[in-house]
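#structure-requests
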Amino acid sequence: MSTFSGLNTALSALYAQRRALDLTGQNIANANTEGYSRQRLELSPVEALSTPARWSTARGAGDGVRITDVTRLHNEFMTNRTRAERGLNEYLQAQSAAYANVEQTLGEPSDTGLQSQLSNYWSAWSDVANRPGDTSARTQLLARAGTITDTMHATRQNLDNLFGATREQLAADIAVVNQTSAGIAELNQRIVLARNGNLPTNELSDQRDTLVLRISALTGASGQLNEDGSVNVALGGNLLVQGDIVRDLQAVGSTTVDGIGINPVRVQYADNASPAGITTGKLAAHLQVLTRTIPDAVAGLDSIANTLITTVNAQHQLGYDISVTPPSSTPTPQPGGPFFSGASAKDIAVAITDPAKIAASSTPATPYQGDNANAMAAVAQDPQGADTQYRDFVVGIGIQAQTVNRRATAQQVISDDATAAEQAESGVSLDEEMTNMILYQRAYEAAAKVVSTIDTTLDSLINMKR
């Protein structure tokens, strides 16, 4: 047995504890780095000679310590759960934001919203009924009707703009998905090459998993770890990323809400135009907004406008105006014409510009009576009328928004809990690292003391033989 074997044992301890200190410093340095997974040094003893041989001898003690691996403390199951919960959370949060935008566009309840304007409009008909010959009452009626049409135009335009902005955001997010997928494929390639060369891949794996989480938030995609260290990203039953191979996505379909019925918006693979099958994530929320939320809101608003046009025109055409045919100055009542023109919220307009053309009377014999105006004011109470439709429309959107908001609030808690659980498993705890640092420091000092002690012992032995 070599007298110097104890020095080799102590030296291996110095190397191991110094490497452990370096790794602790790496963990501390990345305590606030997004996506970083805590690393741990794996040590194993160097066994003493245990295989019988002709000239072998046994000392009964090992030959020190060796570093076997640097483990990345990463739980794939918890990571996949975090990805799934993050995708659903992003879907619901985007849905909640979309409904908030629709509600803001409608501006209800409000003293200046469409509901209040409709109420003022019907009140103006009552004023005309009470003062059928008063030009100011008739002018006020036309002004309030114009306010309604302007509000419907503005609301419809805001919904169109919201559709266009969401469509642009969908295209932008798909570009992010394609770029992120390419980044995952590149990191997959680097990780496989590094593993084949016995090089460390922990930091590369952290970067790759951060990108996979980003794609999961956008599309709800899932990741599957392969034996070679690469990750396959699956979306809708198809592989979006397989090793270093990537499939790009693209958005197709109408860019305006008016064309959505003929050419609906969809997301597909660029190589073969097959559906991407996105059911959760931010992209799924965009698709939901573009194919249902906004089109349904537009259809509801157009239906309300059409009902208003139809009912008002039908009643107005039953009455008679107080128009005058020159050169006579005496009223020559004419049957009422269309009060509104158009057929939807986009093109509704007041068809009358002359207050005298308002058909307030129910008979040409007495043009200055307001029976037809009274009948028009009563339309406000029609259970199938525009007022009732509008109230139901606003309440329906409010209920849907409330439902989504509650789900989004609950899912946010679930997503945060899943993230916290993953961080507890793989994140850096400064308290733990400080404890480890002291532990490794003391072990290093002890190993150094062993070297010093053996040196002193050897020095004494050598001096004894002089």
